[in-house]
Design brief:
The structure holds two protein chains of two kinds. Chain A is α/β, with parallel strands linked by helices. Chain A is about 50% helix and about 10% strand. Chain A has a five-stranded mixed sheet, with helices on both faces. In chain A, helix 20 (about 355-360) crosses helix 22 (about 390-400) and helix 24 (about 425-440) crosses helix 25. Chain A is globular. Chain A starts with 17 loop residues before the first strand and ends with a helix. Chain B contains 15 helices and 18 strands. Classes of the chains: A alpha/beta, B alpha+beta. The structure holds flavin-adenine dinucleotide and iron/sulfur cluster (2 copies).
């Protein structure tokens, strides 16, 4: 069915991941100067006043305390500073990994309150991009202290958020990412909104700005025309002797907003000689909740996934979204100490592979059509930093004849997408987005490849802002296209 | 900060966005690369020399202490703001103002990160040799204030050898410009040498003119493993006596190798007692390769159990990353480490290593030794747990004996990390009363109110006996 009004940005989604184009683009703004940092600091001061009325409770309490043997490993060498996006943007030690670790340690030792405003701010300004963790020569597993620190904050400070924010948060975490059915229902509404012309009407009216929802709205991904619904479908390998049976996790954003990517994933796995099953009963991996400081909900979601997958005879569990993949690989860790679940979770995690990692290991057939294009591969933080996978996607892309891979400056600096960061820290997210787009465009690519939906959305938004029309695709889509073109 | 009026004045000078007073910020600016901690009065991040000058004037009027701070990687506590100091962070003064091929100089602000400068000049075929292992996490201001060294020192010298001119804001706010763009300059006292290595105690450095060299076209790396550290040290002497001048000769002992290997699996020969890492550079590939081969055969003659020449740029970079990862890797073995930085004449390296091993055995402590063997600058590290007072008492005595041994061998307390808080109680052992008296007079002449980075370099009363960790 088509509607009389074409959606404003219909051409963004012509095919594949997302395509940004100029018609609705705003002009690029010059990078911020330090003087412009003012707003940020002032707002922090306001927050501070708002929160100081609460009694200050020094130290962490209860379960999920950031382990001291992790933060005590930091020898303050500073090597992580130049890898940290928020440090590079602010040049403030407090906004650096070393500074944040010192704050977590200070709370852990009872010298600072877990709800102290600067601490809360820093735990949220951090992107959880784990660049610091990837370079730390002392082996400080930063993610393992950040996530419980956020959980502690949620327990003490969560209820003190403005009501509107609480509602959005609850809606996002409890309803949307709580289970796939609700998400699909919401996505259907959103699709109607995006395609019926309603979106154009509402945007023009400024209504959302009035109720402060415009960011959420602008950030919503363009919804796929059909969803990729896991219902135990089985797709046979192209080869008579399958190399492996791969169970695919469809991803929550992926399966409604990037159904094409999920479909391409299945086709390419089949071509690479794998039987593919998409098990029913799977749901959100829990990343969004865990990063937002809701470890309990994250664990509940993890259990559902473990149940859905563990009954199988699968050799591997495949995920094509880097952010979800890193969480699925860390289930073992979030259940550490839970005697009922620790082993099951660890077994689950040991089978998880990122799609690019797996394809690179088993090898792919080489009947790929030519693509004469300069491609920039943008490293998702949760692939390069959290899972330490950088070479595999590049090796896969390099197999496409004619394709030229070009590296960019600051390849491992986060684009600012980082889950719901866009909503919680809009200003920093925008600055990082601009920074990334500048670096990407400097390489003058014909196509941008990535391996995570959040990054794809952020890049597309950044390109739109810069008025540039460069398609953004998942690595597997480029492979899939090259196979179909080769016949 | 108690004094809201003062905070307002700081904000007027530097802009509200560049003044930090929240508890969390004071915590984060209370430390450097050591374990010392303190809490500053406030943190200011100025953008211009004029702002720095105004801040100094305010500090002079208020008798307020100032601790300049760059990237906070210092290993002697220099940037730790003793109680009540205003931290003057220079990291937002981070512009490379000029790179001149014609004059062979770069003019930079103090917050330019060493690695960023290296990259920028190398893109133009130029070369800034000083390369502390902390090149990615230290800034030129900090490098100059500590007179930092690096692996390439053996051939190229230390930071101070490249400082041609400085702009320094004196404690009272006056702006001093000293030195120039000429390679030769003997007009008057050499004030830039005085400010280089002054650890923030004489003023805040706001602009630096650095000498650049042409970039050597080829750099090659080789390693030699030994089953006794003495043989490694003899090899160093033999290489230096042979007429060759490698860019670097780095030494890693057995414990060091094991710590690094456990950490990053760099493929180091952990069974050996010591490893030497050589680099040679030059403009002709055949000559560079030939020199490296000559070094490898000298090593074999002196008992190397194996030698290996890095086949590629990547292989050699892997070796140097392993070298740079040493310091933090040591922290994986025990919770804390006390990193020393003694330097001895080249001929005394063996004696110094023996002394350190003997001290370690006597106090029952683990002490990896690594360092710049070519220039006699060794980093014996004492691994420990600060929460154990009995162990810390032994650490304190052992550290003192290491200093004393180095000085007895004709060496010095610090080759490159500076004195700061860590070594100040031993200053007199090294310098003697006359030199310290002159230094006091210089300090009084330039900083009569004593507001610049108080508590650093000069010992508290009591000498080595008052040494605290
Ligand atoms: C892992 C590791 C490896 C290291 N390797 C080496 C090495 O190989 N060689 C070496 O020499 N050092 C090494 N260091 C020590 C340290 O990195 C150097 O001393 C470096 O020069 C400090 O620079 P910074 O920018 O971090 O300065 P900071 O630590 O911020 O400050 C150092 C001192 O300089 C003063 N200062 C800073 N900026 C100014 C300014 N603008 N004006 C006046 N005073 C100022 C401060 O008051 C302080 O006394 C290493 C440190 C680490 C953590
Ligand atoms: S790199 Fe690791 S040890 Fe060094 S400051 Fe960062 S977290 Fe601490
Ligand atoms: S996770 Fe990313 S943003 Fe957070 S401290 Fe580490 S490098 Fe910085």
């Amino acid at each position: 069915m088509r509607f009389a009004f074409e959606p404003e940005c219909a051409d963004h989604r012509s095919e594949g991941f997302i395509e940004a184009s100029s018609p609705c683009g705003r002009s690029g703004r010059p990078p911020p100067t330090f003087r412009e940092l003012k707003g940020w600091t002032l707002r922090r001061a306001e927050r501070r006043e708002a929160m100081l009325t609460d009694a200050e409770l020094k130290g962490f309490t209860g379960a999920d305390i950031p382990p001291e043997d992790v933060y005590n490993r930091c020898v303050r060498c500073g090597l992580c500073l130049p890898t940290c996006p928020t440090y590079l943007e602010t040049l403030v030690e407090t906004s650096s990994p070393r500074g944040r670790i010192a704050l977590i340690k200070a709370v852990g030792e009872g010298r600072l309150a877990a709800n102290s405003p600067g601490f809360v701010h820093q735990m949220h300004e951090c992107l959880d991009c784990r660049a610091c963790e990837a370079v730390c020569p002392s082996g400080v597993m930063y993610g393992q202290i950040l996530e419980p620190a956020r959980t502690q904050i949620e327990r003490t400070a969560g209820s003190r958020r403005p009501l509107g924010q609480q509602a959005i948060r609850a809606f996002a975490l409890d309803v949307l990412f709580g289970d796939f059915t609700a998400l699909r229902f919401a996505a259907t509404l959103l699709r109607f909104y995006q395609r019926s012309g309603l979106q154009r009407l509402v945007r023009a009216s400024g209504l959302l700005r009035l109720i402060d929802l415009h960011r959420l709205e602008a950030q919503a991904p363009p919804i796929s025309s059909r969803f990729f619904i896991p219902h135990n479908q089985r797709r046979r390998a192209a080869a008579p002797q399958p190399k492996a049976t791969a169970f695919v996790h469809a991803g929550c954003v992926m399966h409604v907003a990037f159904a094409d990517v999920d479909e391409a994933t299945v086709r390419v796995l089949n071509r690479a000689g794998c039987d593919v099953v998409v098990p029913e009963g799977q749901g959100c991996c829990g990343a969004i909740s865990i990063h937002a400081g809701d470890l309990d909900r994250g664990r509940a979601l993890a259990k559902a996934n473990i149940r859905a997958f563990e009954r199988s005879d699968a050799d591997v569990y495949i995920i094509n979204a880097a952010g979800c993949g890193s969480t699925l690989k860390e289930y073992g860790h979030i259940f550490a100490g839970d005697s009922d679940w620790a082993q099951r979770a660890a077994d689950f995690s040991s089978k998880v592979r990122d799609l690019t990692e797996f394809l690179d290991t088993i090898g792919i057939p080489l009947n790929l059509a030519r693509l004469d294009a300069v491609v920039v591969y943008q490293d998702p933080c949760h692939l390069v930093n959290a899972q330490r996978i950088a070479a595999a996607p590049r090796r896969l892309l390099a197999k496409i004849p004619g394709l030229t891979l070009r590296e960019i400056e600051e390849a491992t600096i986060c684009c600012g997408s980082a889950g719901i960061y866009n909503l919680t820290m809009p200003e920093m997210a925008d600055r990082l987005k601009r920074r990334k787009i500048e670096n990407v465009l400097a390489a003058n690519p014909d196509v941008i490849a990535t391996a995570n939906p959040g990054c794809a959305l952020q890049l597309a938004a950044g390109l739109r802002d810069a008025g540039r029309n460069v398609p953004v695709k998942h690595v597997v889509e480029l492979l899939d296209d090259a196979y179909s073109a080769a016949g | 900060m108690h004094n809201t009026r003062l905070v307002e004045e700081l904000k007027e000078i530097a802009g509200a966005a560049n003044v930090l007073t929240a508890d969390e910020d004071l915590l984060a600016y209370g430390f450097d690369g050591t374990w010392y901690e303190s809490k500053p009065l406030a943190v200011v991040l100025p953008l211009t020399t004029a702002e720095v000058s105004a801040l100094h004037k305010l500090a002079t009027r208020e008798r307020m202490a100032i601790t300049p701070r760059a990237m906070g990687s210092g290993l002697s506590g220099g940037a730790v703001p003793l109680e009540g100091s205003l931290v003057l962070g220079v990291m937002r003064m981070n512009r490379i103002l000029e790179i001149s091929e014609a004059d062979g100089v770069a003019v930079v602000q103090p917050g330019v990160v060493n690695a960023d400068l290296q990259r920028a000049v190398e893109a133009r075929g130029l070369f800034y040799p000083p390369d502390p292992a902390s090149l990615k996490q230290s800034a030129i201001g900090g490098n100059v204030a500590e007179n930092a060294g690096g692996a390439r020192c053996l051939k190229y010298g230390v930071t101070g050898d490249y400082v041609m001119a400085l702009e320094v804001v004196l404690p009272n706010g006056d702006v001093l410009r000293t030195g120039g763009r000429t390679l030769k300059n003997v007009t008057g006292y050499n004030l830039r040498a005085l400010f280089t290595g002054s650890e923030g105690t004489l003023g805040t450095i706001t602009e630096i003119t650095l000498r650049l060299l042409p970039k050597p076209k080829f750099v090659r790396t080789a390693t030699a493993a030994f089953d006794s550290i003495e043989r490694a040290a003899q090899t160093v002497s033999a290489v230096m006596a042979s007429g060759l001048l490698p860019t670097s000769i780095e030494l890693l002992d057995r414990i060091t190798m094991r710590c690094v290997e456990d950490n990053i699996a760099a493929g180091l020969p952990v069974d050996a007692d010591a490893l030497l890492l050589f680099a040679v550079d030059g403009n002709q590939e055949a000559i560079v390769a030939g020199e490296l081969e000559a070094i490898a055969s000298l090593a074999r003659e002196h008992g190397a159990t194996s030698t290996c020449v890095a086949a590629s740029e990547a292989e050699s970079e892997a070796l140097w990353s392993a070298r740079r990862a040493i310091s933090p890797s040591l922290a994986r073995v025990r919770p804390h480490k006390l990193g020393e930085d003694v330097a001895v004449p080249r001929s005394q390296i063996v004696a110094m290593i023996r002394a350190v091993r003997e001290i370690a055995a006597r106090y029952g402590l683990t002490m990896p030794i690594f360092g710049h063997a070519g220039d006699g600058n060794l980093h014996p590290n004492i691994l420990c747990d600060r929460r154990d007072p009995e162990e810390m008492a032994r650490v304190k005595l052992a550290a003192r004996e290491i200093f004393e041994a180095a000085i007895a061998l004709g060496g010095t307390l610090s080759g490159e990390h500076g004195i700061g808080l860590l070594k100040k109680q031993f200053l007199e052992l090294d310098l003697g009363p006359e030199a310290i008296a002159i230094m006091h007079k210089l300090k009084d002449a330039i900083d009569p109110l004593g507001i610049m980075n108080p508590g650093k370099i000069f010992p508290n009363p009591g000498g080595p006996d008052a040494f605290r960790l």
